[in-house]
Amino acid sequence: MRTTTVGDVTILLPDLDPEDLDQVSDLPDDDLHDGLVQAASWRGRQIADWSIRGCRITGADLGEIAWEGGALYGCEIVQTDLSGAALTGVSIERCSVTGSRLTGIRLIDVRLKDVLFDNCRFDYATLNRVSAAGSVAFIDCTLVHGTWSSCRLSGVVLRSCDLSNLELDSCRLDGADLRGSRLHAFAASLDNLQGVALTEEQLPELTRMAIDALSIDVRADSARGHDR
């Protein structure tokens, strides 16, 4: 059993030995188990009610795939292109995604449990009704200009990520660990951020969010030197 700890969260990760995996180049007609996928191109393919289990996928082109239903379990995804992909109703558990591009990805009704995203690009990503059923962490990820709506991500870890211009709508992010993340123009309802962990350096951005949320009018003290 392999685990990693990020902040206060421990994530159960896949423990794969490439020598125990079968080389796979073509997309099979049925579920994919115990496969080693290297530099394959499945761009734009459509799959439904499909399961990928115990696989290592590296250097692959999975851009613009449409995957509806099914599960991704116990997998390692490394330096893979998932830009423009659409995953709907997929369960992702005990997986690590490292150094991969997920620009413009759409995740809808996706369930995450024991998932680590490390040094990945999620810019312009759309997350709708994504839920964290267990430990989930994003480390050194770029999530700029994304739109997350109706997500349930309490306790998620977003460490040292760029959250600039990320917009959250009706998302639960309470108890999240945002330490070290860039919050420039980060937009979220304050009541959905209860109990988040921040560093002192991030407090000015939190202040900005509070001022925007409360429509506070910050003015110069024009009364100085005059009668009050």
From TrEMBL:
Highest taxon above the source species: Bacteria
Gene3D superfamilies named among the record's database cross-references: E3 ubiquitin-protein ligase SopA (2.160.20.80)
InterPro entries: 5peptide_repeat, Pentapeptide-BTB/POZ_domain
Regions crossing the membrane: none
One Pfam family cited in the UniProt record for this chain: Pentapeptide
This protein's name: Pentapeptide repeat-containing protein
